[in-house]
Write a structure and sequence with these properties.
This protein has 375 residues and is of the alpha/beta class. Helices cover 35% and strands 19% of the residues. The chain starts with a helix and ends in an 11-residue tail after the last helix. The relative contact order is 0.18.
Length: 375
């Protein structure tokens, strides 16, 4: 019964899970997994800050890259996430096909620094993409395929539709559909309020992300969550900092361990230790971006269908398909693939399956070739 409860909780995650609920999940005792952070350098070859001109000021976008030949895969993350959410996927796709990967922290996210980080309108973010591409490649950009997840998928569509990337080769949107996204808007604030406000460490944040079902792949969570949280400016005892450190995780009662120390005593000792440290909190307050949500998703399906490049839609479930896309799919206007056994963070949960689907799509359209020995 306990196992069934876990499965139900994991499978009932809201469709926009990068803004998802911190559903409390009861975990059994004795499960020891490694939740220590992993470095970006284990997955990407280079990291740089790209500077662009913007209204008489300079904005700086954090970029992670891999590969030296072939078309560019420009990767756009979901709301609240960062370019690091593409880390494991990047190492996999680069082993499959000849390509270059560029994953960027979007405005207001990760380690990107802009003059106006609160302007997360679709128009502004789409322009950001074009400016970064121009800064990277000047007037002679290579063929580029934009791949976006959730909010990043919406921004990818807006970018393509506005022709901000003239050398656009193709478009891949991962688990974002207008109908489902619009339906979810009313409950997004509840999802955000139910998440922990603070974590005692990055390890604690990683553990929460896995046990709550936000990211089901432990390896990906260990590198991805580093880009989602930051150290609080104030210690725990200061006003304005939440004490809800572990509210997303409930551990089962355990018998006293071999040392005779109870869970209650350990928790008390942990709490005392936490007070000596700065806590970690979310890098971006997603609840404050609400006025932009509708602009990301409204009209997205028709906009997607009007993009005149080969298109791939990857979904975590067929229930996410709305009327416009159902008709478009029947008319062969885009290729669609459903990847089961994963949550909303599709490219993090099953990076190999996403890489396989994308590699097959790109080779079929003669955008690139498989690497020697694969498949």
């Amino acid at each position: 019964m306990e196992k069934q409860l876990q499965l139900n909780l994991l499978s009932s995650k809201p469709p926009m899970a990068d803004l998802q609920s911190g559903s409390k999940l009861r975990m059994g005792p004795g499960r020891k997994r490694d939740f220590t952070p992993l470095p970006w350098s284990q997955y990407f070859e280079t990291m740089e800050d790209v500077e662009v001109e913007n209204d008489n000021s300079k904005d700086t976008f954090r970029i992670y890259s891999s590969g030296s030949q072939g078309p560019v895969l420009l990767l756009l993350h979901g709301g609240g996430h960062s370019a690091l959410s593409w880390a494991v996927f990047t190492s996999v796709i680069c082993s499959r096909i000849n390509c270059r990967v560029v994953a960027m922290d979007l405005r207001g996210h990760g380690d990107t620094t802009v003059k106006n980080p609160d302007d997360l309108s679709a128009e502004t973010m789409a322009k950001d993409i074009g400016k970064v591409v121009e800064a990277l490649y000047s007037e002679n950009p290579p063929p580029i395929m934009i791949i976006g997840h959730s909010m990043g998928g919406a921004i990818a569509v807006h970018t393509a539709a506005a022709n901000h990337v003239p050398s656009l080769l193709g478009l891949c949107v991962i688990d974002v559909v207008e109908g489902t996204a619009m339906d979810a808007l009313n409950s997004m604030q509840n999802f955000l309020r139910s998440r922990p406000k603070t974590f005692k460490s990055v390890e604690n944040a990683i553990e929460w992300s896995v046990k709550s079902g936000q990211i089901r792949n432990v390896e990906s969570a260990r590198v991805s969550m580093v880009g989602q949280v930051k150290k609080c400016d104030e210690p725990l005892s200061s006003p304005g900092v939440s004490k809800g450190i572990s509210e997303g995780i409930i551990e089962e009662e355990e018998e006293e361990d071999e040392e005779g120390e109870s869970n209650h005593k350990r928790k008390k000792d942990d709490d005392q230790e936490i007070k000596k440290e700065n806590l970690y909190t979310w890098r971006i307050e997603l609840s404050k971006t609400e006025k932009y949500w509708e602009g990301w998703f409204k009209g997205l399906s028709s906009l997607f269908l009007t993009c005149h490049v080969p298109k791939l839609l990857l979904l975590a479930g067929v229930d996410r398909l709305d009327k416009d896309l159902t008709i478009g799919q029947m008319q062969g206007k885009f290729q669609m693939q459903v990847l089961p056994e994963c949550g909303h963070a599709v490219h993090e949960d099953v990076p190999e399956k996403v890489a396989d689907a994308l590699a097959t799509f790109m080779v079929r359209h003669k955008f690139t070739e498989f690497k020697e020995g694969f498949p």
